[in-house]
């Protein structure tokens, strides 16, 4: 028994020594878990090929009238009279209606003979009031004159409007007689 106890004791000693001398092995880090599969959206469909739109030839701007025609137009424009407005008003006065009816005859002749030609109705004010106010008032005067002429049968597409407000006065005195001359609508050749 003694020999058996020694043998057991020796066995326990070997085991203790084996466990105590056991080297720790460094563990390698675990590989990352695979990312979950994300369903990819299918690529967008290819757009249909662009169709070539037929190119429409742009009409060239009308050629300026020859010199003899310009003289004729200027003669007709000389027959057109300005119309005048009351202070701070854009309504067409009765005597201005008669003037516009007379003007319409000359304007109709110009536009009938020269269908590509344009005229411009210009609106003006006297020197009183702000620039912004007078530009708006001059615009209303020009548009009212244009609308009156269109109601008489003239083509709106050949009558442009512009406002000069208190710029380009025909009279520079500072009195009512002069101011009345500046509150007007004037017909001229269009720059377009």
What is the H/E order? HHEHEHEHE
**Helix content range of the residues, please?**
40-55%
Distance between the termini: 132 Å
In the sheet with the most strands, the strands line up as 1-4-2-3
CATH topology of the domain at 67-189: 60s Ribosomal Protein L30, Chain: A
Overall mean pLDDT: 80
Helix-strand category: alpha+beta
The CATH class label of the domain at 67-189 is Alpha Beta
Q: Strand count, sense and closure of the main sheet? A: 4 strands, mixed
Describe this structure in words.
By secondary structure, this protein is an alpha+beta fold. It has a domain at 67-189: OmpA-like domain (60s Ribosomal Protein L30, Chain: A, 2-Layer Sandwich). The chain has five helices and four strands. A four-stranded mixed β-sheet has the order 1-4-2-3. Strand 2 (119-124), helix 4 and strand 3 form a beta-alpha-beta unit. The relative contact order is 0.13.
